[in-house]
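$ ./design --mode recover --in tokens.txt
reading tokens...
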């Protein structure tokens, strides 16, 4: 299974389906932020990563311009990742609280981190067509992650996409769909979906999302996995 996920990751990094996103991700990688002027940016689609036996799926939005688009690993190299992996470490889903670069020793435990869109979009706003172009990658990823019991959605975009993708996979989802709110839960036939505000600076700097709030969501995910008995 690991080799299949590795093959999928390679295929994802070679994707050029969306001309606007290809142009933007490569422009960002050329017009670097001054703090990273001496670094070589990844500038390609970013695959998911984690434990192939994961029972927890963490779903974001898309790579950060100077985070994952620079480092080549989801939620790595920016403040969003600092918040995410600190919470995952505190709740037993990561072996360390920091995520700086691909070779930093981070290992996820019973968790897989990914996003519906694999290229950094301008203004963090992918087009519907770009989301749809990228969606087959998420389906293929889920095909190779058969043990998922809980999905933590970081933000409304992830919340909406999780329900749509699971429904496309023939999984019964609640109708009407529960409204997105921090801590909201949606019980599908499998898995349980839990919502969190996104770990963007817009939320963390303003106090809309606190560390305790984020840890509580991952604590609920951990408890739900244990309760599933599998």
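writing sequence...
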């Amino acid at each position: 299974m690991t080799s299949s996920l590795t093959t999928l990751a390679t295929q994802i990094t070679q994707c050029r389906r969306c001309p606007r996103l290809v142009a933007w991700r490569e422009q960002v990688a050329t017009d670097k932020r001054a703090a990273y002027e001496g670094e070589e940016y990844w500038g390609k689609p970013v695959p998911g990563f984690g434990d192939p036996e994961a029972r927890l799926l963490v779903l974001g939005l898309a790579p950060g311009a100077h985070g994952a688009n620079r480092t080549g690993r989801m939620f790595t190299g920016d403040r969003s990742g600092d918040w995410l992996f600190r919470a995952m470490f505190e709740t037993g889903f990561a072996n360390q609280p920091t995520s700086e670069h691909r070779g930093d020793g981070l290992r996820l435990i019973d968790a897989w981190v990914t996003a519906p869109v694999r290229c950094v979009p301008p203004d963090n706003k992918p087009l519907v067509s770009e989301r749809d172009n990228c969606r087959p990658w998420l389906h293929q990823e889920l095909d190779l992650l058969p043990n998922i019991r809980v999905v933590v959605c970081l933000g409304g975009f992830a919340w909406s996409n999780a329900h749509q993708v699971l429904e496309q996979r023939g999984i019964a989802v609640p109708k009407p769909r529960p409204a997105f709110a921090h801590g909201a839960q949606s019980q599908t036939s499998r898995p349980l979906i839990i919502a969190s505000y996104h770990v963007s600076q817009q939320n963390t700097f303003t106090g809309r999302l606190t560390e305790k709030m984020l840890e509580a969501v991952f604590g609920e995910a951990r408890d739900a996995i244990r309760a599933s008995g599998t």
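exit 0
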